[in-house]
Each structure stands twice: as C-alpha cells, then as structure tokens.
Amino acid sequence: MALDARKGAGWLARSMMRDRKANFAVMTALSAPVALALAAVAIDEASIYTERREAQAMVDLAAITAASNIDNVQTAVVTTLTDNGMPGVVVQGPGQTIPAVVGKTVVTVTPGRYAGASSVNVGQRFQAGAAPYNAVHVTLRKIPNRYFASSLIPTPVIGTEATASMTPQATFSVGSRLLSVNTSNSPVLNALLGGLLGGNISLSVMDYNGLISADVSVLSFVDALAVQLNLTGVTYSDVLASKATVGQVATAMANVPGLGNTAKAALQTIATKSTSTVKIPLSHLIDLGSVGSLGLGQRPAGLGVDASAMGMLTAAAGLANGSKQIDLGLSAGIPGVLSSTLAIAVGEPPQSTPWLTVGEVGTIVRTAQTRIKLVVKIGAGNSNVGGGITLVSVSLPLHVEVAYAEAKLADISCPTGPGSIKVTIATRPGIVEGHLGDSSSAGFADFTSKETFSNTEVAAVKLLIIPVLSVVGSAAFDMANNTPTTLTFNKADIDAKTIRTAYTQNFTQSLTTSLVSDLSLTANLLGLPLNLNSLLGFVKPPVVALLNGVAAPVDSLLTNLLGALGVRLGEADVRVTGATCGRAVLVQ
C-alpha cells in the first residue's frame, strides 16, 4: 500500500512537470513590475535627453544674444531663456553656489575675450574677464521633468554650456594731415617727394589736389599689386607678407578701378620717376586683420576698406626712406631770408602698428617719427643799432622732432542696429619738441636716442668796423598730451570718411614764435664769454625783431613739410573709412 502511494506521488509530480498550462501567466506576473520599472526609466531617460537637447539649444541662443549685447549680457541671457520657456531663471554670481531645484534654472554669465587663432589651444581661447570683451560664456543647470521613475533613479541635473563671440571691426588710419597741405607750394612738395623716392618729381598743383582728394579701395590695390608681384591663388595676407618698391605701390594704386584721371596720371608719373629700389614690407603699411584671410578678389560683407591715395603714397615713401636723411636746398621765398637749408629724417612706426589697419577693439596704428632741421639765414642789412654797433647777420637754426602719433580703436557699438554704429578712437597727438640751437649731425637720423643741443651763433655783430662780437643762444619748446583724446565717429562720419583731429592741449602759440620769445642770448667778445650785458641790451631787440619777422612764414613752411609727410605739429588726424559690428556666432 505504501509503495502504491509513492508511485502515485511520483506520477503526480511528473504530470505537473509535463503540464505547462498557465506558466506564461505566472512568469508575466513575476516580471511585470520589472518591465514597468524599465519602461518608466526608459521614458524618463528619453524625456531627459530631449530636455537636455532643448536646454543646449536655449543656451546656444542665449550666448549668441548676449554676445550681440556685450554691454548688457545678463539681461540678454535672462530675457532669452525666459522668453523661450525656461522656468525661474536665476543668475549665479561670482562666489555664489545656488543649488538646482525643481522649477528653477540656474545660469552663470561670464563675459571675456575669445581668440580664435589656431595656434591657441582650444581650452585657452576664451579668457574669462579679459577686456575688451568680445565673447560670452553661458552655463545652465536645472532639474529635468520626470514622469515615472522619480523613485527609482537619483535626481539628475542637466548641465549645458556655450560660448559665443562677436568681432566688431573697423578700418581706420592716423596722420592723414593732407587736406591742410598748401598745394600752391608744389616745389617744396616736389623736392620732398623727390628726396623720399629718389627721383626728380615734378607735379603740378592740380596733380596734388587730385591725389589729396582721391581714395582708393585697399583690397583692389592689393589685387593689382599681386598681379605685379606675380602672386596668384593666394590671400590678401600672403600679398602683404611680401615686399614691393614705392614705384610698384604707385603703379598698383594707379590701376585701382574708379580712380580719377588726374590722380591716376600723377601716380603713373611718380611710378615712372621713382628710382628707389628699396622694397618696403607691405605689412608695415597695411594690416587687414581677419579680412586678410580672404582670397584675392573676395570682399568682406558690410565693411569698407578705403584709404587716402596721398596718405598711402607718402606713408610708403617714408617706409622706403627708412631712417635715412634727406638734404634739400630750398628757395623758401620768404622776404628777408637770404638762404635756407633743410634736412629731414623719417623713421618707421613700431612694427605691427601700420599706418592703416582693419582691426578689432584694441588695435593701434601709428605714424612714423620725423625730424626736421631747418637753418634760415636772415639778412640784417648792416643795421646800425647804436653806439657804433652794427648787426651783420642773423641765423635761425631750427630743429623739430615729432614723435609718432597714435590712434587706438577703443570701442565699436551698435546700440540699436547697424545704422546706429559708433566707433570710438583714443588718440594721442605726436609729442613735439622744438629747439633753437646746434645739434650733433651724427645723431640726427638715429631715432634710438635723443638729440642733444647746445648754444649756437644767432647773430654776428661788429663794433665800428671790427667784427668782434657774436651773439649766441638757445631755446627749447615742447608740447604733449598726458592722456588720450577720444574721437567718436557715427555712421554718417564713416560714410563721409570724415577726418577728426586730436590737438595737444597746451599748444598756445606757433612753434617758431615760442622759441624766439624764449630765446636766451649771451655775447662773446673775441671768442671770450665776457659780461657784456649793456652791449647785449643794444643787440637783442633787433635780433628778436628780425627773427619774429620770419617766424610766421617759417611756421607755414614747416606745416607744409610735415603735412606732406602725414603729420602736423601738435595734432593727430584720424579717419574711419569702414566699420561693422559683425555677427555673433558660437565658437565653443
């Protein structure tokens, strides 16, 4: 009986093992919670992924908007995120730690400067807080929405970031003091250009007026220059990395489309007459900035790149001359002046600071340093000044040094769009020093050191019939600005290519007149410095009167000479010929 029972139990077990009815129901009941949990996690993960992508898109948009409003970045970010549905936007300031909670979006907004050069590591291209600002870095943290799996997985935090940059640019130059050149004195200008270019230049007043009034497209000029240099398939920067003679520069300018016939003919004459074989580094003349990366024939959108024909020519001539000295014998045409000799030395502006540039905020342009030595012999007419004293001759040995004038692009803004563009230039007029005295000729063309001056013979005097007395003296004068002058250009100014001028503030009278009025004279008898105050009292008034009589025309002569070189005593002229606020783009 017991055996039958055991057999019955075994049979029952085997029967149950063979019978699979309702197994799937059991398995489904056991696995359903796991499947539901996995489905909940998958749905929430997909939702979080979608929300993260939306958050990244919003951060990208906020960074671009902030870069376009660099002066008000926080407001731009908050407004952009709020308008696009981000809940409870809160800006986390420096040193703060705001935790992300449901219903709150925590953002950080960091302005700085972005440099996109390939030579800079990607992680170092954005410099937080570096001025002037041209970029914004935005980060965002928030708790995403969860629908089913909030009790199964830890609370996630979405974190996204973006960096956007906008690069405003302007085309500007310094030292275009050409509208003030007295073109009626064309022999002086011809002599100066001839000395710079190494040829016999003979241009008329009409020729100079044509050059002064003409502007050339700089990019068209570089296109034409590339043809002369046999450069093809290259960028503008590749052309400017080469060298050319002033004759080649003048020829390329003459070939720019749209140039007036008078200016074109004058440039062709200069190109033909120029005998200088010195090749100038074109990068010292023009810097096109990021525009230089364009291929020949291409043009930047919304940015004009024009320059003064006369300004470019004289800047190139100055670079070709380098620091060499030009000696000219001038017929000054000044009443009472017996003769005049002139020496000019033109240096270079510091490297990487050309005469004209296309650049961002912070870019600097400079003119070259210039030294002028003008010795004027004045006829005294054997003036009897009393007491048997006769004034035989008077000399005016005048030395002028103009350090480079500087213009720095301080700001470009478009408060309400491209039509409201405003360009601000911080300008320092060239420091001017004037001396009446003798200097060492050996150091005249050496711009690495200051000239030294000593007393010079200003007048020769004879007592009765014996030439026993010389009047010696010296004077010094300088003018400078300690702080830059701010010049502002709006769209109308830029379109009209208006010239604005920064003046040295303490310039109250003409240079020559100031030197003459400050002249300190002493007398030497038979070569010995004796106390001759009473005798000097007779001599000094007529000497000063003769010097004052030629002061104004000598000032005019100096103004013409310096104006032809692109500089002016105590002044710096700046012109902006193109500007754009650019377009904000994502960079990281």
Descriptive key words:
588 residues, alpha+beta, 2 domains, 8-stranded antiparallel β-sheet, 29 strands, 30% strand
Describe this structure in words.
There is one protein chain. The protein is of the alpha+beta class and 588 residues long. It folds into two domains: 26-166, no CATH class; 170-586, no CATH class. The protein contains 13 helices and 29 strands. Helix 2 runs antiparallel to helix 3 (73-83), helix 8 (246-254) runs antiparallel to helix 10 and helix 12 (511-517) packs antiparallel against helix 13. The radius of gyration is 39 Å and the shape is elongated. The model has no long low-confidence stretch (mean pLDDT 78).
Short description:
This protein is α+β, with helices and mostly antiparallel strands. It contains 13 helices and 29 strands.
Rg over alpha carbons: 39 Å
What distance separates the N and C termini? 88 Å
Query: What's the structural domain tally?
Result: 2
Helix content: 25-40%
Q: Ranges with pLDDT <50 over ≥5 residues?
A: none
Mind describing the biggest β-sheet?
8 strands, antiparallel
Write down the overall geometry: elongated
What is this structure's SSE topology?
Layout: H1 2-18, H2 23-68, H3 73-83, E1 89-91, E2 105-114, E3 126-128, E4 135-142, E5 158-165, E6 169-174, H4 186-197, H5 205-213, E7 215-217, H6 218-228, H7 236-240, E8 243-244, H8 246-254, H9 261-273, E9 280-281, E10 286-287, E11 306-308, H10 309-321, E12 325-330, E13 337-346, E14 356-359, E15 364-366, E16 370-386, E17 389-402, E18 406-413, E19 422-428, E20 432-436, E21 438-439, E22 453-454, E23 456-463, E24 466-479, E25 485-490, H11 491-496, E26 499-503, H12 511-517, E27 520-525, H13 533-564, E28 571-580, E29 585-586
Parallel strand pairs: 1-2, 10-14
Antiparallel strand pairs: 2-3, 2-4, 4-5, 5-29, 6-14, 6-28, 7-11, 8-9, 12-13, 13-16, 15-18, 16-17, 17-20, 17-23, 18-19, 19-25, 20-24, 21-22, 23-24, 24-27, 26-28
Helix pairs in contact: 2-3, 5-9, 6-8, 8-9, 8-10, 12-13
